[in-house]
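Risk mitigation, structural track. In case the binding assays with nicotinamide-adenine-dinucleotide fail to produce interpretable data, a predicted complex structure has been prepared as a fallback.
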Amino acid sequence: MTEKRSLYENVTLQVDKAAKMMSLDSDIHQILSKPTNEIVVNFPVKLADGRIEMFTGYRIQHNNALGPYKGGLRFHPSVNRDEVKALAAWMTWKTAIANLPYGGAKGGIQFDPKSYSAEDLERITRRFTYALGENIGPEYDIPAPDVNTNAQIMAWIVDTFVSMQAPHQRQANFHVVTGKPIESGGSVGRDKATGQGVVFLIERWAEDNHFDLSSSTFFVQGFGNVGSWAARLMKGHGAKLLAVEDASGAIFNRMGFDPDALLAYSLQHGGIASYPGAEQIDHQTFLATQADIFIPAALESQLTDETAPLLNVRLVAEGANGPTTPEGDAVLFEAGIDLLPDVLCNAGGVIVSYFEWLQNKRAEFWDLEEVDSKLHKMLMSAYLRVYKAAAEFDCDWRTAAYIVALRRLRMVYKNRGIFP
Ligand code: NAD
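Fallback model:
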């Protein structure tokens, strides 16, 4: 049974494995093993009913050797310093693998947004932005959506942040966050970008493995931004969605679900569990679904040494961050299940965030075709880098992905040295 380890300890184990394999210099390994800044803000919010409530928010900046810190904001009761540290580190590896000019960061507020009205959510978001102050900025640290945050939340952050700038500086600060609504400086294609990236990579995996997606089956954990987009884009290939799990429960249909209809239902009812005509199943039965592909797109540490053996699939394509523990990885590897690791597989979101940031800086507006084709090109290059590293080191894909990231960071530290 898995020894209870923190999420950051899981990331550290993953990095250590890759560092050892590639003989990473111990100095650089040491630098990368700790986040640069850990910002914790406790702030009061006056809620709509006049009550004042205290909240705890985090922004952890892991590394900025390659460019400004970049990473999402999560609103969830489980948000804590350790979780955010791990998520921030994953952003450093992800941006490095994708060859983006960014470092890694992550943040969030520990609370359940579902228990608050839209008006209170706006108050909490704006007060958090104020509390973060100059710890974020368009050329310094650029947040984006993550679990339970969306384009609307980004719009409130932008509005608050630019209101805190001198009037002549306001227009120059709109790229302080990405994932904004299109009308407020967002990019077309950002909403679907992470799910689109997952599906581009599944297509490539299918091509390399002579696998026919049109007659394939898959199942998805999490039916929010990433899970629902991935499922809807898989439908375009004719793939059949057999089972879905979200926070409300898990459902199965041997004939397959229509992801568009399921999404409409989920948005209306706040979850998928009572979808008409579906068989309700428990978590273990859900994980044991016999299918070709499993897309985890919810929270971390879902596939462990206890749960990974339940899987009955050919490929795990990680839409979520950190869904597999090191022990879960070992089970997948032993079982010969292919893996598209999170730091590669869900990089579509941060790549299109980068496109949004570039469009804001250049006062440009790209169309969907341009966004999608550039995303495809960048992801395919990242895929090839990981593929080659896996062949060179004869290792699993997660370790190969980390090797790609660590090599890039090593070059930067070698070039620039350490000041003073
Ligand atoms: P979201 O809030 O839109 O959706 C989260 C989904 O997970 C919801 O359907 C929710 O019901 C489900 N969920 C929550 N707890 C669950 C549980 N215990 N069991 C099963 N399902 C559960 O969030 P999202 O943006 O889709 O993010 C999902 C994952 O993808 C996260 O790991 C996130 O870090 C990662 N990710 C997101 C992006 C992005 O662009 N949004 C980019 C890269 C990675």
